[in-house]
């Protein structure tokens, strides 16, 4: 059913001449993910004597999930191994093999292993973990005599001052802060970071209560709305990760919220901001009880229940999530490992010095409400992202957008009975 569509998106990675089977794997093309996936798959193919077919998927998590759901609902065998976001195991679990006992997950972050275990079934293996970070132009802050901001309000003020100073020096393209503002999963993560940092809840609480309609949540969104066209370009409403990185890496932003993958790209030999960038925790809300809140992210590998070659597919996942491969990806691409012991590996830390302090951040990162909302999470996320986008675009007042959202979520969750 989908073979003709996927064939145009595939690239064959050959093994040895004694190839036995072909395994198809979906890989993100965000940043250098496609290259690293191809290299890892090629190494496995050479080692195993099999072949791997790489399937290109959309950068947008929303679009990728929709593609996966189409394929799996049709019980298609076109993809054997899926790269899945941290919030998808509960949505896709019924279509994924139980990997319990087939792949050893000892040493991985326990929080992520629990996240990937649905109804007692281990449906995905952690590949790398993520937490939102604040990137900043260290050189510009030092020149302006400014500290790294501790609160969102301080970020707003510092971004405005440094942006204005740079524009007066001749860079008319300089902005203060960029983030992921498109109405997709990335905005859900940014939004939950803003809310959690203001002690405003997590959209839907673990007990199923819809908590998003509250004054602190409205305050957090109002502050973010104030950035648009003041310290943040209007175009941010269409930015995902790569658009944000493009602006920051070109030297046209003071601050950027993004994932750890951006670090090696910002410091590549041809990067205009190489050696000029610092990394910090995201600011806290300037309210009583405000905290530094980083959204938990990361990617997993899962095996389709409809694969024709489960043993080989599982073996590919075992190889790609191994300590050696996670170390290679961390060194080459800045991908934060899901294996805790690797954060003490000096070879890994040399190109990624900020990894030394990441473990506490990763352990305490804010999870999206995918566990409590289960199969309805994608609807919850889409509604939340749409409401936040309306508020950022000035199409609705934050309090109004959140009140409407709460009513929608109550209907989706049947008054808390998710």
Automatic annotation (TrEMBL):
Q: From which source organism is this entry?
A: Falsiroseomonas bella
Keyword Transport included in the entry's annotation = yes
Q: Where in the cell is it found?
A: Periplasm
Task: Look up keyword Membrane and say if it applies.
Answer: no
Q: Which PANTHER family match?
A: ABC TRANSPORTER PERIPLASMIC-BINDING PROTEIN YCJN-RELATED (PTHR43649:SF34), ARABINOSE-BINDING PROTEIN-RELATED (PTHR43649)
One Pfam family assigned to this protein is SBP_bac_1
Which UniProt keywords are present, listed alphabetically? Signal, Transport
Which InterPro entries is this protein grouped with? Bact_solute-bd_prot1, SBP
The GO cellular component terms are: periplasmic space
Which protein family is it in? Belongs to the bacterial solute-binding protein 1 family.
- Principal localization reads periplasm
Protein's name in the database: ABC transporter substrate-binding protein
